[in-house]
Amino acid sequence: MTTPFDHDRDPERFRLAARLTLRHLTASRSLYQHLADVLAGLRPRRILDVGCGEGALRAALPAQLRGRIVGLDASATMLSGRPIAS
Fold first, then answer.
1. Which of 24, 52, 66, 85 lies at a C-alpha separation of 20 to 30 Å from 58?
2. 54 near 81, Cβ under 8 Å?
3. The whole model's pTM is what?
């Protein structure tokens, strides 16, 4: 059984899940901050964020890596909340 794809109809469901994950699954920092720290150590030329949502990973990255990330998401609503470039 699959969960219906509804981020375009109800983006708050995505945001609620993100808030709950942060509150209950991480003690001192978010999963995105952990990934950003790992990526900073690797110093990649390009990062593909599949299912980027509203850009939480990009926001967690150090400034020198933000221009290297490409976000991909099937939901136009989620992408509309994400900065295009900086």
1. 24
2. yes
3. 0.68
Residue 26 CA to its chain's centroid (Å): 16
CA distance 69 to 57: 9
User: How many of the other CB atoms lie within 10 Å of CB of 13?
Assistant: 12
Question: Is there a domain that residue 86 lies in?
Answer: no
- Distance of CA 55 to CAs 1, 2, 32, 70, 81, Å? 28, 24, 10, 10, 8
Domain containing 62: what range?
11-80
Q: How many structural domains does the chain have?
A: 1
| Ordered per-residue pLDDT tens for the chain, 86 residues | 555 566 667 778 777 877 777 666 555 667 888 899 999 999 999 999 998 888 889 999 999 999 999 998 888 877 776 666 55
Q: Which tokens go with 37?
A: 């720290």
Instruction: With respect to residue 3, please indicate whether it lies within any of the assigned structural domains.
Output: no
Residue 5 lies in a domain: no
